[in-house]
Design brief:
The chain has about 325 residues and is α/β, with parallel strands linked by helices. About 40% of the residues lie in helices and about 10% in strands. It is built from 13 helices and eight strands. The model has no long low-confidence stretch (mean pLDDT about 95).
Amino acid sequence: MKSKTLAVPAVALGTWAWGDSGEPGDGYFGSELSESGLREVVEKAHSNGFTLWDTAVAYGMGRSETVLAQALKGYDRSEYQLSTKFTPQIAGDGDDPVADMLEESLDRLSTDYVDLFWIHNPADVARWTPSLIPLLTSGKIKHVGVSNHNLEEIALADQILGEAGFRVEAVQNHYSLLYRSSERAGVLDYCREHDVPFFAYMVLEQGALTGRYGPTNPLPEGSSRAAVYNGVLPRLRALTDRMKAIGEDRNASAADVATAWAIAKGTTPIVGVTKAAYIDGLVRARGIELTTKEIAELEALADASGVDTRGWWEQEM
């Protein structure tokens, strides 16, 4: 039974940092999270029409899913969309690791279906993709996406699903001003041509593109973010200064401009939200229309920085 087309919001909400253990070295983001604070995030998001939540087993080994379910308690299941992932690298050794991991996610998320289920990393497309078909047929997953896949892998997954009357309905890759490999490799064009929504994660580069951090105000000590970005913050100065200036003309921040850039490129940014105030930024970003000249200028400054933010988990596109 094919379900209706995936409803794609202007911005999706990321909960990678919701899996934060609070312990340096263990998926540590250095974000102060509390149950009441995250509940406030949910309430503000929903009252502004942001209702697609993106999580994964791999985010804190289930912590993010558990915390998200807690924060959504009391909302009717029809009021929000859940997006979670099967990560091959942590698959169990049962007969059907995909179904097993989904069951565990459903349990943690306190639901009997997910709106969008992703194969998180390619690993072995021919091996893992067929396992999605019975889950689609049963309705436990409504839509399927692939994350961190290159063009060839996306096409193969689509072909496998196509033989059963389904298709790849979304692509989720790392895409930001500093990391445009999906654009350069033709993945964005493919998605446009095939009418497949492209979800862009790490649009703010874990805070490095918000303009809030710099050599004098680095990312939180001991966090995984600090190790990756603090050394390159000086090289991002020209870019974040320009983003701030573009934002000032519109009563918006540099972070809002980074998000608006991703929207202008025809993608759905997934923005990590750990504070209710971040929702105000998403509302502003949704309303910003950057000019062609501004987009070109930001991309030129990003290229000139010479900063490559490809994650350790990512292949070349």
